[in-house]
Amino acid sequence: MQLVLNTPGLALRVRGGAFEAVAGDQRRPISPEQISSIAVTAGCMLSSAAIELAASAEIPIYIFDETGDAVACMRSPYFESLATLRRKQVYFSDAPEGGAWVLEQFKLKTGHQIEMLEHLAERRPAQKEVLQQKAELLVAEVGDLDALENRPVREWRDELMGWEGNQARTYWQALSDAMPEAWRFEKRSRRPALDPFNAVINYHYGMLYGVVEQALFAAGLDPHLGILHVDEYDRPTLAFDLIEPFRPWIDRLVVDLFLDHKVEIAFFDDRNPGFFLNAAGKRLFIPAFNEWMSREVRWRNMQLDRTAQIFRSAAELARYIDETMQRP
Question: Against a cut of 0.90, is the pTM above it?
Answer without folding.
Answer: no
